[in-house]
Amino acid sequence: MSPLTRRALVGAAATALLTGCGGPSAATPTAARDARRRTPARDTEPGPSGPPSARPSGAVPVQLLVPAIDVDTPVITLGLAPDGTVEVPPVTADDRAGWYRHSPPPGQIGPSVILGHVTVGRYGDGVFRHLARLHRGDRITARLSDGGSAGFAVREVRTVAKADFPTDDVYGDVDRPELRLITCGGTRTGDGYTANVIVFAEQRPGGS
């Protein structure tokens, strides 16, 4: 993936999280067009030291389980809205996480990206409200539409200023299945939040 495409993805996906986390924001049309050019890596062959794809290319995540923070949420598929901005999970009482379909599905080679809200307006707390409390080794399971699952273990949790979002670390190519969970964090302001919380997870041995 080129540096330009990575910058477009972070501008489109991470910035769009502001909408549900506290204040309005939208991707630029340029970012949305660039994001649209990226082909999901669903049929990627294994890298030099990477495992084979864990699931057929048609499987997508439908449920996310993070026991350490009591998350058991349906997962919807997010893409690009008609106006060219990146979709985010709807701000509703039954808050759900969303898988960004321009990233690989969980269990495929590459970084799969799942977004969630920390707050959902008048409904209060979002599904990822406790994301920053995760620790290294905590387990995450993504259940897939084909009846299978992909299991991960937390490697690192970072809280970073939105201006310093680590684009390459989040969206850069890797030779194994990995997972990124992203929400807002830091100080809440009138326009949203000042930071992002990012969980980096790697697939557990056995893949489930």
TrEMBL record:
<dbReference type="InterPro" id="IPR023365">
    <property type="entry name" value="Sortase_dom-sf"/>
</dbReference>
<protein>
    <submittedName>
        <fullName>Class F sortase</fullName>
    </submittedName>
</protein>
<dbReference type="InterPro" id="IPR006311">
    <property type="entry name" value="TAT_signal"/>
</dbReference>
<feature type="signal peptide">
    <location>
        <begin position="1"/>
        <end position="26"/>
    </location>
</feature>
<feature type="region of interest" description="Disordered">
    <location>
        <begin position="20"/>
        <end position="59"/>
    </location>
</feature>
<dbReference type="Pfam" id="PF04203">
    <property type="entry name" value="Sortase"/>
</dbReference>
<dbReference type="InterPro" id="IPR042001">
    <property type="entry name" value="Sortase_F"/>
</dbReference>
<keyword id="KW-0732">Signal</keyword>
<dbReference type="InterPro" id="IPR005754">
    <property type="entry name" value="Sortase"/>
</dbReference>
<keyword id="KW-0378">Hydrolase</keyword>
